[in-house]
């Protein structure tokens, strides 16, 4: 199983004092993660989400990550494939530049946003985001692979042009889609896309998702030139020698994350449309509270505590058949930077060595293939 | 930490209703027509009308709601509410800023039994095939007019009408925010383009509400039930600390 780190870049008030600090702390974490052997760094694209995420230009942040590291792969988690947010041609161009500058280390996550705060801010048509995402995710690899590309669709149209530069990775970087609501894992499988889990889910739900995804992707029609059949899930990380310190510090981070997420205007809550049937990651967060005054319990399987505790939890995730886990390291700088760096070091020294093979994911693929053959 | 409201509670209580107790009898409101028009509002003024217990939503927005009740234990009546959507902890709620009721008896009942900040006013409502609208007139002049146009059917399950928060006082407790949770059994629902034809914040008594951007209009026909409050909040404490279960 591979491990990565994941950034929302949440910023405590006052923003003017803290934004620079958050960005530079994140870059220091990325440099250390690269040295320690973490496999990927992912950055979201969010707009207008006060405190929760100030990561509105992930291509710039990821470029900075790439220029300060050697091996770690850099992932758009995700680039928003809604035409009012990003012209699809510009998505293709910027991603290709990042792939070139990083020496072929780009992972291309796609998605469509789930908040009214953002979709309303860009005056996007909420009913159309699934359709335009689908159109764009099919167009991106063609823009990268074809010498000249033309398009006539709902999301965008263009006469034949050479979209330049082309990515270093041939035929193109691996494609992913963010999965935050039920059903999107089917969309991922049907299109041969990696499943970038951005919801905090349970072991049982993850296991069901893996089985269904592995089965379904056997019959996919790939959006790109190849199938990316990997499953990546999100988690929190705070590793400490003292179990109590690890758990209590980790819980503070999770509580803060859920609290900030709860302030956002989710599309489902504000604007009724069949295109958004759940409140995304908030569905889980709010289920954990039975009344407005409840303190929330962390979801199961969270990587907080001592190395032994974290190994136990991650072994359960590994057994579900997923390929990768990406970790949120902090929220609103609630954990001092030195402790975040120490947590990364301890995780790399004590936990990572227990996850050197990918046999569980391989077995889950084989099982799905056998099931199909039978 | 997200922003908290800055409403002066002492000042707000000068015009707040007094609820007799927290055990009103359940009220069945069959075949109600509900119209809800949502508008984003200016951020800074919205903070000044949000109690310190609550966070503004991002972005802040209000809903203008019409409830047309053809029958009820109080007889038929129409109710219009102006609500600011806020967060109690992480939960979205509709903070009642002001309500208007077409019937004097119902006005009295809603204020003293349910904590509505409500006054009697002339309310009209019109339901046509392509437009549902409501108006509120005070002292003979129209102060509020809102509508749903270009309607299209949706599922009742797609609607999020949010529970209500009423800033009120109890005889033995002083200022409280009472959560009133109507339940809805939907018969039909629709979505459409919102219109705000008339809005006079001063006459309505909702200074601080400055509509800036239309979001959506929804409407439904539903059997509504108003049940006794389950939660009470201290208006001066963050909701995660100051919320008490009472039912």
What does this structure look like?
The complex is a heterodimer of chains A (374) and B (247). Chain A is an alpha/beta fold and 374 residues long. Chain A has one domain (2-373): TIM Barrel (Alpha-Beta Barrel). Helix content of chain A is 44%, strand content 16%. Chain A has 13 helices and eleven strands. Chain A has helices spanning 15-36, 58-67, 88-101, 116-121, 129-145, 184-190, 203-217, 243-261, 267-270, 281-287, 307-319, 337-351, 359-373; strands at 2-7, 40-43, 73-80, 106-111, 149-152, 157-161, 175-179, 194-197, 231-239, 303-305, 324-328. In chain A, the strands form two sheets. Chain A has an eight-stranded parallel beta barrel, surrounded by six helices. In chain A, α6 links the parallel β7 (175-179) and β8. Chain A is globular. With 247 residues, chain B is mainly β. Chain B has one domain (9-18, 28-245): Acetoacetate decarboxylase-like (Beta Barrel). In chain B, strands 1, 2, 3, 4, 5, 6, 7, 8, 9, 10, 11, 12, 13 and 14 form a 14-stranded mixed β-sheet that branches. In chain B, β7 and β8 (141-154) form a beta hairpin. The radius of gyration of chain B is 17 Å and the shape is globular. Classes of the chains: A alpha/beta (374), B mainly beta (247).
Which descriptors apply to this entry?
heterodimer; A: 374 residues; alpha/beta; TIM Barrel; 8-stranded parallel barrel; two-stranded antiparallel sheet; 16% strand; globular; B: 247 residues; mainly beta; Acetoacetate decarboxylase-like; 14-stranded mixed beta sheet; 12% helix
Quick structural overview:
The complex is a heterodimer of chains A (374) and B (247). With 374 residues, chain A is α/β, with parallel strands linked by helices. Helices cover 44% and strands 16% of the residues of chain A.
């Amino acid at each position: 199983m591979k491990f990565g780190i994941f950034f929302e870049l949440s910023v405590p008030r006052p923003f003017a004092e803290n934004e620079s600090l958050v960005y530079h702390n994140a870059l220091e974490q990325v440099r250390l993660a690269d040295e320690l052997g973490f496999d990927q760094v992912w950055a979201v694209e969010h707009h207008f989400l006060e405190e929760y995420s100030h990561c509105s230009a992930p291509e710039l942040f990821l470029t900075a990550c790439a220029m300060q590291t050697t091996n770690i792969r850099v992932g758009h988690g995700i680039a928003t494939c809604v035409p009012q947010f990003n012209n699809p041609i510009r998505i293709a161009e910027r991603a290709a530049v990042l792939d070139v500058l990083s020496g072929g280390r780009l992972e291309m996550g796609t998605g469509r946003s789930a908040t009214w705060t953002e979709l309303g801010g860009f005056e996007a048509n909420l009913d159309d985001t699934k359709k335009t995402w689908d159109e764009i995710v099919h167009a991106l690899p063609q823009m990268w692979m074809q010498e000249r590309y033309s398009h006539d669709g709902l999301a965008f149209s263009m006469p034949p042009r050479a979209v330049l530069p082309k990515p270093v990775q041939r035929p193109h970087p691996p494609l992913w889609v963010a999965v935050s609501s039920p059903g999107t894992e089917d969309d991922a499988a049907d299109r041969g896309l990696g499943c970038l889990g951005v919801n905090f889910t349970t072991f049982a739900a993850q296991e069901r998702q893996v089985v269904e995804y592995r089965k379904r992707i056997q019959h996919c029609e790939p959006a790109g030139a190849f199938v990316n059949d990997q499953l990546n899930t999100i988690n929190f990380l705070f590793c400490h020698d003292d179990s109590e310190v690890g758990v209590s510090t980790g819980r503070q981070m999770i509580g803060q994350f859920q609290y900030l997420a709860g302030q956002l205007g989710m599309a489902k809550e504000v604007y009724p449309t069949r295109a958004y049937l759940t409140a995304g990651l908030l569905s889980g967060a709010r289920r954990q509270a039975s009344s407005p005054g409840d303190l929330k319990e962390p979801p199961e399987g969270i990587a907080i505590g001592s190395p032994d505790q974290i190994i136990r939890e991650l072994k359960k995730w590994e057994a579900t058949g997923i390929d990768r886990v990406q970790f949120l390291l902090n929220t609103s700088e609630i954990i001092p930077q030195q402790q975040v760096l120490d947590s990364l070091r301890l995780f790399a020294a004590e936990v990572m060595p227990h996850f050197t093979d990918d046999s569980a994911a391989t077995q889950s693929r084989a099982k799905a293939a056998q099931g199909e053959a039978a | 930490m997200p922003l908290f409201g800055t409403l002066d509670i002492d000042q707000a209580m000068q015009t707040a209703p007094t609820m007799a107790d927290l055990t009103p009898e359940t009220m069945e409101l069959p075949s109600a027509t509900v119209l809800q028009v949502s508008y984003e509002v200016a951020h800074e003024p919205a903070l000044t009308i949000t109690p310190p217990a609550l966070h503004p939503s991002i972005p802040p927005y209000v809903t203008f709601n019409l409830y047309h009740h053809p029958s009820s234990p109080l007889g038929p009546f129409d109710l219009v509410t102006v609500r600011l959507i806020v967060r109690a902890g992480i939960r979205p709620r509709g903070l009642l800023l002001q309500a208007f009721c077409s019937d004097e008896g119902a006005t009295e009942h809603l204020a003293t039994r349910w904590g509505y900040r409500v006054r009697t006013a002339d309310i009209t409502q019109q339901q046509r095939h392509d437009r549902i609208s409501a108006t509120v007139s005070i002292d003979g002049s129209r102060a509020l007019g809102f509508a749903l146009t270009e309607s299209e059917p949706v599922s009742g399950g797609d609607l999020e009408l949010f529970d209500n928060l009423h800033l009120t006082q109890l005889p033995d407790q002083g200022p409280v925010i009472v959560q009133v949770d109507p339940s809805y059994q939907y018969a039909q629902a629709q979505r459409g383009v919102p219109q705000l034809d008339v809005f006079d914040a001063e006459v309505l008594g909702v200074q601080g509400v400055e509509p800036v951007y239309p979001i959506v209009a929804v409407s439904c026909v539903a059997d509504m039930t108003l049940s006794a409050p389950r939660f009470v909040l201290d208006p001066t404490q963050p909701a995660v600390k100051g919320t008490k279960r009472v039912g």
